[in-house]
């Protein structure tokens, strides 16, 4: 039962990783802007404002569909957490991380 | 953009901005099309009758004028992709001693963009509205008719104007039952 609840929660939350968030943001900006631009041009050339409305609505629907659900493409770079080093080393309270090629001591 | 709800809000937020910009662009295109409709009106007959003004219980008597006229008009230039409908009307303007500026609408019409023809041609039609003066009395004043228009767009501001050359020669409101000399 709990497993089902967790799964349901995951679907509702729809968490994605950091790179996925950047990608989703870019997709939102580009699809909405391009749809609006296309809608304007097509409507203007055809002299029919209904085409503008329909193309704009279609672009909006497409954007919502592409960005809102947590598609697998947005979860390809999950955050890599560090191993819990200090507790394994007997609780010395000091661990080390490599940052930019240099080893740095950290308190854990 | 972490969770679905935040992404939903983000897309919606950008959508409002994009729609606003798009609507502004559409509204601005309205100014690209020159609007110069033409119309000519010919007054055929002006009749003035005396009637009780406020209905059954009123004892006040007003003069009411009804006008018959010909109309030829071409509103093609008012229609572009952003025109929803136009409203056109003919008004009578006349002077006066106590109230020097008077204008009253005698006829109007809505023509939507789906109408098959944007030209009007009427022969000897009767004004839709009887008009009466605020003083209750026309006393042989001189009047002219002209046609004005109003464009109602899908997006943007209303546009107003009057058709070039639509103003008629002056005519005199006649006495009751008498025919106007037009």
Describe this entry's structure for a reader.
- Chain B: Belongs to the SPCS3 family.
- Chain B: InterPro entries: SPC3 (IPR007653).
- The complex is a heterodimer of chains A (108) and B (182).
- Chain A has four helices and two strands.
- Chain A is mainly α and 108 residues long.
- Chain A has two domains: 2-77, no CATH class; 83-108, no CATH class.
- The model of chain A has no long low-confidence stretch (mean pLDDT 87).
- With 182 residues, chain B is mainly beta.
- Chain B folds into two domains: 1-32; 34-172, Immunoglobulin-like (Sandwich), CATH 2.60.40.
- In chain B, the strands form two sheets. In chain B, strands 3, 4, 7, 8 and 9 form a five-stranded antiparallel β-sheet that branches. In chain B, strands 1, 2, 5 and 6 form a four-stranded antiparallel β-sheet that branches.
- In chain B, a hairpin with an 8-residue loop joins strand 1 and strand 2.
- The longest helix of chain B is centred in the first third of the chain and has 26 residues, at 4-29.
- Chain B is elongated, with a radius of gyration of 23 Å.
- Chain A binds chain B through residues 12-16, 20-22, 24-25, 28-29, 32-33, 36, 39-40, 43-44, 46-49, 52, 56, 60, 63-64, 67-70, and chain B through 1-5, 7-8, 10-11, 14-15, 18-19, 21-22, 25-26, 29, 80-82, 154-155.
Topology:
The complex is a heterodimer of chains A (108) and B (182).
Chain A: H1 2-13, H2 18-46, H3 49-67, H4 85-88, E1 94-99, E2 102-107
Antiparallel strand pairs in A: 1-2
Helix pairs in contact in A: 2-3
Chain B: H1 4-29, E1 38-52, E2 61-74, E3 83-94, E4 102-112, E5 119-126, E6 131-132, E7 142-153, E8 159-162, E9 171-172
Main location (chain B): endoplasmic reticulum
Keywords (chain B): Endoplasmic reticulum, Membrane, Signal-anchor, Transmembrane, Transmembrane helix
InterPro entries (chain B): SPC3
């Amino acid at each position: 039962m709990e497993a089902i609840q967790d799964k349901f929660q995951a679907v509702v939350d729809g968490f994605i990783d950091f790179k996925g968030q950047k990608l989703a943001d870019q997709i939102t900006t580009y699809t909405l802007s391009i749809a609006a631009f296309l809608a304007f041009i097509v409507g203007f050339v055809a002299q029919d404002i209904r085409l503008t409305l329909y193309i704009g609505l279609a672009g909006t629907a497409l954007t919502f569909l592409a960005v809102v659900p947590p598609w697998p493409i947005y979860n390809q770079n999950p955050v890599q957490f560090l191993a819990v080093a200090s507790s394994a080393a007997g609780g010395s309270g000091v661990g080390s991380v490599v940052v930019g090629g240099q080893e740095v001591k950290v308190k854990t | 953009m972490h969770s679905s709800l935040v992404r939903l809000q983000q897309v919606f937020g950008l959508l409002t901005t994009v729609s606003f910009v798009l609507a502004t662009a559409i509204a601005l295109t309205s100014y690209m099309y020159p609007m110069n409709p033409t119309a000519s009106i010919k007054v055929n007959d002006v009749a003035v009758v005396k009637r009780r003004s406020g209905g059954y219980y009123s004892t006040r008597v007003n003069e009411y004028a009804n006008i018959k006229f010909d109309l030829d008009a071409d509103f093609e230039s008012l229609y572009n992709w952003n025109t929803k409908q136009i409203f056109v009307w003919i008004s009578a303007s006349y002077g006066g001693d106590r109230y020097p500026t008077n204008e009253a609408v005698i006829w109007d019409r809505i023509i939507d963009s789906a109408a098959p023809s944007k030209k009007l041609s009427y022969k000897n039609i009767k004004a839709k509205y009887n008009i009466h003066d605020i003083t209750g009395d026309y006393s042989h004043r001189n009047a002219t008719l002209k046609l004005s228009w109003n464009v109602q767009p899908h997006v943007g501001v209303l546009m107003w104007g009057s058709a070039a050359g639509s103003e008629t020669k002056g005519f005199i409101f006649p006495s009751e039952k008498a025919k106007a000399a037009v």
